[in-house]
Amino acid sequence: MGSTSTISLCSHSKFQLRRRFDSDGSRSDLFGYRAPGVYLPPVVPFRRRCLVVKSNGGGSRRSASSRRVYRESQSVGSVVAPVQQLASFVVPAASFFAVTFVMWKLVEKLLVPKKGRMTSSVDSKAPEQGGMKWSISAGSNLLSGFGAKIERESKLKLNDFAKELRSFSSVDLSGRNFGDEGLFFLSESLGYNQTAEEVSFAANGITATGIKAFDGVLQANIMLKTLNLSGNAIGDDGVKLLCDILANNNGIQKLQLNSTDVGDEGAKAIAELLKANSSLRVLELNNNMIDYSGFTSLAGALLENNTLRNLHLNGNYGGALGANALAKGLEGNKSLRELHLHGNSIGDEGVNALMSGLALHKGKLTLLDIGNNSISARGAFHVGGYIKKTKSLLWLNLYMNDIGDEGAGHIADALKQNRTITTIDLGGNNIHAEGVTALAEALKDNSVITFLEVGYNPIGPDGVKALSEVLKFNGNIETLKLGWCQIGAKGAEFIADMLKYNTTIRVLDLRANGLRNEGASCLARSLKVVNEALTSLDLGFNEIRDDGAFAISQALKANEDVTVTSLNLSSNFLTKFGQSALTDARDHVYEMSEKEINIFF
After folding, report:
1. d(CA 199, CA 177)
2. pLDDT digits (tens, 9 = 90+) for 250-286
3. In 10 A of CB 7, how many CB atoms?
4. Dihedral angle at the C-alpha atoms of 336, 236, 178, 251, nearest 10 degrees?
5. Residue 365 CA, distance from chain mean position
């Protein structure tokens, strides 16, 4: 007699995964499980099915006992429920893993190249070795295929750079970081180049080794006039190599070697080059490590060189001894026009020696930068003596020293006699109202100075009052820098009153003076008056709020002949309302007079 019974799935260790076919012969997307004696139908969402388990020895008899079993299976939930839960979990999970495995194999076969198919210039030169190639270089431990791609892209970029060198007269390749190897590749485009006149290779990771790329190239190039290698750590060794190459070059007139780790040995090599080279006009050696010994070598070269026009030595370590050495070189030099010695700590003794040498200088020096050199009032006295004697100096920078009121008096007395200096920078010198008053008196008799910088000095309202009274009707100042002078709202009143009468000031800098709304309102009243000179007004960092912005906007609208084209109100306390008012005023001016005002918030 046949019998039926329920069988646990755990008793069968092997399952067969088969795809079910519908009655019409089409293939279903659901899977069922079949094992000897057990069949698990596919799980259909939101439909509940019962698991029917048939024994192998049951035959084909379908009697009342089978119906009884069916009813029992329906009633005994403790046996069927676990099977249903297991089937509902296993079936979709198995489907997911099976499909994922098949898709992964297909993707792997399609995307991963076969061994030996990928080639590169490196592979064609070196025999293949098993395993992955590693390197200690940062970022180089990558798959060979990716490395080849990077190499191809790098060569394409270098080819583009080379085309620029062959196509344009001025080429800026700074900050591309192509290193020594890239320079060797690009230098070939400079040989017998008839196009490029200015080339910058600044900040590209070039070392002394890369300088060898110029050998045989710069000797053949007669068109290149400017070569910039700043920001590359070529050091003394690289400079020596470069000087040996340039000894036979007659084309380069401007050589820029700023921040290249040049020391005294490199300066000596450059000095020897200056003795033999007759084409170099501008030499920049800013922010290097040149000490007294290097300054002495360069001073000796100045005695023999008669072609160098500009010498830049800012940010080195010359000191008083270096300045003294340069002074001796300047005595016999006739060609130098600009001398930049900013930030060399030459002090009062150094500036004394330097002024003595410049007084005997046979050439026509037009620019002197001795800012940030720890010069006090005693040093300013010597500078004043040179100012009285010079007949060629146009530009003088004493920025960020400590000459004080006494030193400002020495400079003021000298300016009364000088009729050549047009630009003078006395910013950051601890000058107060007394010192700026002396300078103002000098401007009464001096109509040559057009640029005056006295910013970063605590001149206060009294100092700006003395200066404003003179500038109402005297002087020829076009650019006036008064930033960080602590003039306050009271000082703004004096400035505003001066602007009503002054007809020369074009650029006015009043940054960080604590003007606030009161000072802004005073300046706004002066803007309502026709001023045909003022074009740029800087009021940044002045704690101006919306009320001050409203006053300025109304002034701009009221003056149809306003000449201001640039108004800076950045770093103040303006909200969207104040900014909107200024924007409306700008648009109004443009609609009425077609004049554009650039307003910066």
Report:
1. 15
2. 899 999 999 999 999 999 999 999 999 999 999 999 9
3. 17
4. 40
5. 34
